[in-house]
Amino acid sequence: MQGSESAAGQKLIAQLREQMGSSRVLDDTQQRELYSSDFYARGATCAAVIRPADTPMLAAAARLVTAAGFALLPRGGGMSYTGGYTPDSNASVVVDTADMQGIVAVDEQGMTITVRAGTTWEAIYKELQPRGLRLPFFGTFSGRRATVGGGLSNGAVFFGSARYGCAADQVLGLEVVSGDGKILRTGHAAFRGGKPFYRAHGPDLTGLFLHDSGALGIKTEATFRLIAMPAHTECLSFAFADAQAAAAALSQIGRADAAEEIYVLDPETTARNMQSGTLGSDVRRLRDIVTGQRNLLAGIKAGIGVVVAGKNLVPEHAHSLHLACAARSRSAVQADAAICRRLAAQQGGQEIPNSIPLAARAAPFDNLNGAVGPAGERWAALNAKVPHSDVRLLIEQFDALQAAHQSKLDELNIRVSTLFTAMQTHIFSFEVVFHWFDEWLPMHKEVPEADYLRRLQKPQPNPAATAYVHEIREAT
Fold first, then answer.
1. 323: which DSSP letter?
2. Which long-range CB contacts under 8 A does 22-27 form with residues at least 24 apart?
3. Which helix (H) or strand (E) holds 437?
4. What is the pLDDT of residues 91-134, one digit of tens each?
5. pLDDT band at 297 (very low <50, low <70, confident <90, very high)
6. Is there a contact between 434 and 475 (Cβ–Cβ < 8 Å)?
7. CA-CA distances (angstroms) from residue 397 to 269, 317, 384?
8. What is the three-class DSSP state of 222?
9. Which end of the chain, N or C, is less packed with Cβ atoms under 10 Å?
10. Are the CB atoms for 64 and 47 separated by under 8 Å?
């Protein structure tokens, strides 16, 4: 294998340093191990990590790396458990896009924004909020660190997804660096004198580079469409007796296009979420709830509601559905909320305090302590998109699969939870999350707040549990 210790690796590193500058090429072992692992697994340790400052610098580096026979692996915020950037071989170079960040242009009249691929979803939200604008889909829970490039490569969903779909659905055009160092543009901006406002001008080449885990090219810029920030928001929560009833309600509300995001948490997930916060983040979130309402009185009432509800928000053993309605007028948001209440009630939903969606909307890009569980456990998810018509059967079959493995799961102390979300009117997102104890990977030590990690006991190595998680993920 060729690594940083090989003659070919050392020659490539020297060439990259001469071309990019020494500070932009990392070959320290600890750094290479960090950038070669995600939240699920370690890859082979890469030969080097490069941090290009701009697109031309990346293009020149790509020509060097691929000509030397090394793989080129783009990495955004690293908030992944898919293996999308973990190397298969030591003969690889990881591209850290953190320095390729920032807002390129906001066209308020044209309702577009162009950003560099290393820009976080939180940074975009903060740039647009004072202008009264927003992305339709506006980010993931990990949006404080997760980047545009990573989200477009790996199908980012959540805030706004029930109405507007995933991150890729909002893209109007891309700038991409190919493996041989060519700089490509897609959409109308690819034409001489063209502007990045229209995606499907000719063949839709933009889609070629979306959801590819960076395999077909390294995204360096993206242009998104914008919407006006909704003037009114209402959050609702409901408790259901079982997963099937909650899923049926989610499907009905999703088909009705009555909410911007809709999600169902199982009892396991709810319990973990209630444990993983810190006092500081709870105080900040309450402040954001109060100040984020349409007026001070509404903010105080919402804040009091959260305090009164405390952390006993969901009845024990209940599956809970949470949603956010948003519209231009108070009457419109109330009409949508009425539809949601009616559809939830049809499936036996009991309305409960709305603290969970209210807090999520008030601080959409909160701390990332949840990267490690409240007892120090690791976790990894697996996600499928299916039509609403397949949901009942999917839940039944997964429940049967889990039951067949349950004795071994209990023996190895592996817990299973689920998260359901809606995407536009026609897609049900089914996510299974496995939680288990094994030694932390580099990303588990890098991402959460130091105070949070200090409260936890580091798990001991437990390769048997990790191997079984891999087995049941494959079976799933």
1. E
2. 23/51, 24/50, 24/51, 24/52, 24/53, 24/57, 24/99, 25/49, 25/50, 25/51, 26/50, 26/51, 26/96
3. none
4. 999 999 999 999 999 999 999 999 999 999 999 999 999 999 99
5. very low
6. no
7. 20, 21, 13
8. strand
9. N
10. no
